Amino acid sequence: MRLQRNISIIINVSLTLCLIILTVFSIHQYKLQTLYKDYLSQNLSHDIISLAQAIQTNNKIYEQILQTNPTSNSYHNGLNVLYNNYRSIGPIADTYSLMYNQFQGFKESNSLNIKNFSSSALEQMNYLQELVNSDAPIDSKTKVALEKYYSLNSEWLKIIEQSELLIVKENGEISFRNGNNLTINELNWANLFKDLEAQTSVFLKKYDTGNI
């Protein structure tokens, strides 16, 4: 009788310990997941602002190059800034397109396709790199190409300025419309990329070409 009671106590204690361990483990896992989501959300918020600022800055530089007579140094410095900005725009878009599709389970019906936007940014980056490496002055052919890039970038800037996520203040500062950072798992941030992709597609159809 006493042996049975002891066995029962041991079983109860063991079950209680297992329950405690599982509870602690679950809490730990939840905290890790929360920390990871917070980390991703902070990166997302930073990258969205960086992308918007890059597009905004690019427009100003295109205007300086095309609407004034920049010195050789000013022209090539501008090209360098444009190149570096486009160098960051594409990877940001590709990273969060992949992340969005992972959240959606890679379902084709819900996928985020940014092929035109991403490839256009890459094309501009490659062209600008050629200009930077050539160190040649601006000529009529180059000006025509830059004017097309400027037109597309201006369309992107309109998307930024009209975005439900972002607000562009009178001083040019870009911030989130609700005053808070984005949350990675809410997925509303994907609308910005969808709008950029849609506008890029319209632009490319206007020029009736697969590239700019």
Rg, please? 26 Å
N-C termini distance: 88 Å
**How many H/I helices?**
5
Unreliable segments of 5+ consecutive residues = none
The number of distinct structural domains comes to 1
- Indicate the structural class: mainly alpha
Total beta-strand segments: 2
Shape: elongated
Query: How helix-rich are the residues, as a percent range?
Result: over 70%
Transmembrane segments: 7-27
Keywords: Membrane, Transmembrane, Transmembrane helix
TL;DR?
This protein has 212 residues and is an all-alpha fold. It is built from five helices and two strands. The protein has one domain (49-206).
What does this structure look like?
The chain is mainly alpha-helical and 212 residues long. It has one domain (49-206). Helices cover 75% and strands 3% of the residues. The protein has five helices and two strands, in the order H-H-H-H-E-E-H. The chain has helices spanning 2-67, 72-103, 115-134, 140-162, 190-206; strands at 166-168, 174-176. The chain has a two-stranded antiparallel ribbon. Helix 1 (2-67) packs antiparallel against helix 2 (72-103) and helix 3 (115-134) packs across helix 5. The radius of gyration is 26 Å and the shape is elongated. The chain starts with a helix and ends in a 6-residue tail after the last helix. The model has no long low-confidence stretch (mean pLDDT 85).
